[in-house]
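Supplementary Methods, section 5.1.

A reviewer requested that the exact input to the structure prediction be made available. We therefore reproduce it here, unchanged from the version used in the analyses.
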Amino acid sequence: MKTASSLFAVFIVGLWTYGFSASQLLADCGEGEAVGINSAGTVIGPGFIRARDGSISYLTAPGIGGLGASAINPAGEITGYYYDKTGNPNVAHGYVRTPDGAITSFDAPGAPQTLPQAINASGGVAGYTSSGNSPEHAFVRTPSGEIQVFDVGEGRTYAVGIDSTGAVAGDCTILDESGRPRTRGFIRSADGSITLIQVPGSSGTSISAMAPNGIIVGSYQGDPRGFFIRSPSGVFTTFELAEDYFPYAAATDVNSAGSVVGYYFSPPDYLGHGFVRDRDGNIEIFDVPGYNGVNRPLSINAQGEIAGSAYIGTGECAGLERAFIRSPKGEFTTFEVPAP
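The structure derived from this sequence is encoded token-by-token as follows.
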């Protein structure tokens, strides 16, 4: 997701780089950022795991400290990355954590940063590598640990999702007929074959997420511009929101039923609002109770439960991030992560 959310991610990533979590630095108020929720209702975020009963455990490893979290699968396997605490702080390692707490670290060849973004039910992982001075490269890691790095097009390649078959979805840069760089989505099947994704009539297409059954969601540029859903058979459905919201908007996740979540910032005050679109095309706008400016749904599970973060608080704690869960009935649970 290359949207306004990256502005907030910089802050969190910076904290992990130096070995601190937001909750450790702001323990008097507490914070929490939920980035994923699985079908069991387990929620993950930077440095924590929250069970459906509300109990919180810390996502750490000996000699490493807090682990950044990117995704969780139905079995409770988690993937993410952490920054090197003993050597170069610009080096990032990927990992997979099993439900019993065993952690396997891994590095994709050829770059100092390995950044997993998604994990499927079998434990296959997709993400990308970064070196800071060359284009990003996508990678896929099999459940047995084999890593393949690949590129699509002529520039950067990001992998953001992986389905139950091992197919990977993401973004790439290609050059059009006039030599100008354009963003295109792609799907790489398990056998390595590539399908470029472009919403018909658009000038640019970007993929945000991939469901277990191969549905993808993202955004497209052009006139008009908006969001899209692509079925596993290749059928596109496009939709827009009622308000003027671009470029500060993102469709962040989709489940196998075709329900999409995301957020947008509406002028003139650019308050952030969440939205969920069901498979029939009905769109509901929502705000976390008590939020004060930013409201970012980031994940939706098979049952339609949504997890994300919102800025909630007053006084000294005003504007701090709290994690939230929204039930399919629209009921909210907000929580913070205590300092360990």
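The longest helix spans residues 5-17. These observations are discussed further in the main text.
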